[in-house]
């Protein structure tokens, strides 16, 4: 979806997949049409025509009205009513709003952790599974620590040979300690730090300081930055990217497993607290909208450093009661030409910046890295689309006019010519 007169763009495939995954959690929603007293175990919506029992083992949550905040596992459904496994703690009234979450925990645990069968003493839970974590198409890679060569360093020999810059781009991957080799869930298990260096020849990573040093035998996941940002978006992580105890607490998982084996759902509550937080976000998140400034015929980056003003971006179509939850920058151009007879490229790291039209302070919107747009001779290249990874929702808070500039633009030589340039914002918002 785009603003008036704007052209939609396609983001990187992995990011689209993540957004789709969040929206897929909520498979249906509606409005209750009849009263259910406290102690009842049903919910009716005559506007529906569901297939019988298609929602079995999913979760229904009341998100608006007198019954707001209640959630329960669904034991079955008819064409227009749900039956829950337990009982409603308080009354639900006509007009209350609900959402159905695609969360069949029992089958997930059976399929992923128990090879399709119930978890039991003869079919125990695997604490971690390299096959699962190592197969997410490059978004998450994992392995055992084989050496600790220095402070804040660890080596995973099975992750050698992937290229020195693979994990240390402008927004680097993070190291997340899935399992502490001591077996007592001690630090740094459950902690996450940004990766600052990677030696491809040995598979040695340097990261921020954990509260306890990573040790030989620890099992560490190397996580794509989009995964970390998505975890923050759906509140599986706190403001600094660390995971809450409810995600890694083995006792909670144990309660879930015992419930799955015995068919009882009463002990799911602690874990579904995290799911409740997700559903609070998911139930109101809308598809993103794109907004662009007017095209600029030519942007010239010379060998003399300076700021370049770019057309304002007008955000005008967000609903009045919406809240911006994420905003990133986009720049596209038809072609770029090296106007110098010899080699040329951007000289040093540079940023597109944004501010509100008050005006406020400039804030980084999108990163260019040193030597980006490299040429060896005078020639031209086809256009590009560059997506930012910086969340500027603290600046882009709603409808309004936003100023944009290319800060401290500088080329190695005169000049790099960017033709038919357009700068935009991609905004996710919640109602």
What keyword list fits this structure?
431 residues, Elongation Factor Tu (Ef-tu), domain 3, Jelly Rolls, 3 domains, 7 helices, disordered N terminus
What order do the helices and strands come in, and which of them pair?
Elements: H1 13-24, E1 26-31, E2 42-44, E3 59-64, E4 71-77, E5 81-84, E6 97-101, H2 105-113, H3 130-133, E7 140-144, E8 153-155, E9 174-179, E10 192-199, E11 204-207, E12 219-223, H4 225-233, H5 245-248, H6 250-262, H7 269-282, E13 289-292, E14 296-301, E15 306-315, E16 323-338, E17 350-356, E18 363-368, E19 380-387, E20 400-409, E21 416-430
Antiparallel strand pairs: 1-6, 2-5, 3-4, 3-6, 4-5, 7-12, 8-11, 9-10, 9-12, 10-11, 13-21, 14-21, 15-20, 16-19, 16-21, 17-18, 17-20
Low-confidence stretches: 1-15, 104-121, 123-137, 232-271
SSE string, helices as H and strands as E = HEEEEEEHHEEEEEEHHHHEEEEEEEEE
Helical content class: 10-25%
Can you count the beta strands?
A: 21
Number of helices: 7
Global geometry:
flat
β content, as a range?
25-35%
Main sheet makeup: 6 strands, antiparallel
Describe the oligomeric state of these chains in a short phrase.
single chain
């Amino acid at each position: 979806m785009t603003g008036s007169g704007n052209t939609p763009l396609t983001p990187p495939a992995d990011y689209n997949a993540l957004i789709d995954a969040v929206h897929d959690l909520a498979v249906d929603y509606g409005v209750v049409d009849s009263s259910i007293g406290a102690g009842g175990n049903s919910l009716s919506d005559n506007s529906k025509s569901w297939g019988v029992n298609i929602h079995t083992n999913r979760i229904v949550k009341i998100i608006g009205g007198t019954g707001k905040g209640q959630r329960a596992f669904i034991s079955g459904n008819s064409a227009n009513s749900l039956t829950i496994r337990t009982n409603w703690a308080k009354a639900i009234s006509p007009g209350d709003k609900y959402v159905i979450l695609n969360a069949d925990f029992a089958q997930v645990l059976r399929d992923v952790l128990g090879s399709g069968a119930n978890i039991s003493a003869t079919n125990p839970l695997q604490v971690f599974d390299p096959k699962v974590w190592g197969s997410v198409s490059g978004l998450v890679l994992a392995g055992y620590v084989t050496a600790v060569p220095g402070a804040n360093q660890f080596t995973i020999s099975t992750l050698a040979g992937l290229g020195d810059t693979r994990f240390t781009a402008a927004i680097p991957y993070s190291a997340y300690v899935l399992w502490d080799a001591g077996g007592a869930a001690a630090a740094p298990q459950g902690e996450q730090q940004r990766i600052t260096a990677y030696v491809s020849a040995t598979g040695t990573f340097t990261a921020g300081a954990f509260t306890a040093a990573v040790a030989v035998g620890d099992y560490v996941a190397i996580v794509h930055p989009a995964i970390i940002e998505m975890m923050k978006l759906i509140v599986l992580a706190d403001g600094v990217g660390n995971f809450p105890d409810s995600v890694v607490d083995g006792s909670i998982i144990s309660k879930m497993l015992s419930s799955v084996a015995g068919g009882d759902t009463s002990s799911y509550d602690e874990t579904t607290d995290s799911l409740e937080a997700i559903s609070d976000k998911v139930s109101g998140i809308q598809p993103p909208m794109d907004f662009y400034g007017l095209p600029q015929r030519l942007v010239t980056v010379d060998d003399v450093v300076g700021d370049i003003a770019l057309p304002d971006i007008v955000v005008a179509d967000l609903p009045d009661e919406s809240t911006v939850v994420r905003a990133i920058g986009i720049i596209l151009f038809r072609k770029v030409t090296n106007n110098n007879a010899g080699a040329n490229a951007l000289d040093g790291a540079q940023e597109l910046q944004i501010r509100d039209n008050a005006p406020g302070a400039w804030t980084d919107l999108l990163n260019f890295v040193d030597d980006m747009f490299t040429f060896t001779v005078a020639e031209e290249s086809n256009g590009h689309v560059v997506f930012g990874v910086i969340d500027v929702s603290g600046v882009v808070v709603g409808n309004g006019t936003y100023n944009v500039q290319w800060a401290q633009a500088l080329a190695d030589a005169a000049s790099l010519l960017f033709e038919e340039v357009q700068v935009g914002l991609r905004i996710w918002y919640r109602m």
